[in-house]
Model the fold of this input.
Amino acid sequence: MNALSPVVERVDDGAEALALYVHWPFCVSKCPYCDFNSHVRGSVDQEEWRAALLRDLAHEAAEVPEGVVGSIFFGGGTPSLMPPETVAAIIAAAERHWGFAPGIEISLEANPSSVEASRFADLAAAGVNRVSLGLQSLDDQALRFLGRAHDASEGLAALETARRSFDRVSFDLIYALPGQSEADWREELARALSLGTGHLSLYQLTIEPGTRFAALAAKGELPETDPDHAACLYEITQAMTEAAGLPAYEISNHARPGEESRHNLAYWRYRPYLGVGPGAHGRRRGAVTQRHKKPENWLAALARNGHGIAEESLISPADRGVEALLMGLRLREGVDLDRIAETAETEPRSLVDSDAVNRLSEQGLMVSQANRLRVTPAGMLLLDAILAQIVRN
Done:
């Protein structure tokens, strides 16, 4: 299996480029499947929030003054609700603090409402060069079930607007919905692939704790998809995307070679990343950071401390090695065990159960070659169980 196409990870001096995540916590409404840190508010003081995000960013720059930024990702919530001038101010501040690596990727998540799509040209002018569009479905009935505010025609119109505005466009779909047949998903996925974007994020519906769907499932009002049926839909997804030239480079993400999300690759390859805004996580200099989740608590912490951090703690080399292993095995390329050993400051065999790897390899679920370890496409269906077997406690 070929490795992924090269992406911007290092700069001329060989140092790893930083990834920067900016969280915008507000949404117009809360989707019933969503467990992200998102909040509905009647109004938002945009000037206050712009100043607060810039202050939180300045704190990270003081903590990590060296390096350049290779990717920025505006996530949420619904960051396409951010005023373009706020996006521009954050991008400009990041460039002042660190400088940018050549070919920097600047992504923003967007909902396909006509109001938000009307801002796409201004967001592109602000510096965004990649958008991830939350279509979620191309079927009106499914969109209503998912609690989305747009219909399929509005979503497709937004996609066209995005393609005119941004260099790179991705969109999300959710499948394995109650009652969705193999034929239904084949038809929808074929239509999605015909739209011609270079990246797709395709997620099976999961019932997350604390969501409205979880409450409905607990009362028996939401049927769960049969695991065998879900597995069939997953196999259909892999076959169709591979045939269309958008193979899975991560368990749920598909791209033409060279159009992988550089920012998300930084997470999965366990590169350093900084997080600002409510609920944002970071990994820097051996420390884990997490911001306050509730917007009001985050603002209060900023006023009190000059940053929005709720928790900051060192993580041991061994735990970093385990995290790097767990994240990297989500990727089609797998992990470099020498790099894992460097991260963990120990031998890989102290983290990996070799007997379990050999057993899973014989079953066709893993491949171990030289210093690389990866999960096969068949194994990705069982990824959680595989990780539980191979990682030593």
Notes: The longest helix spans residues 46-63.
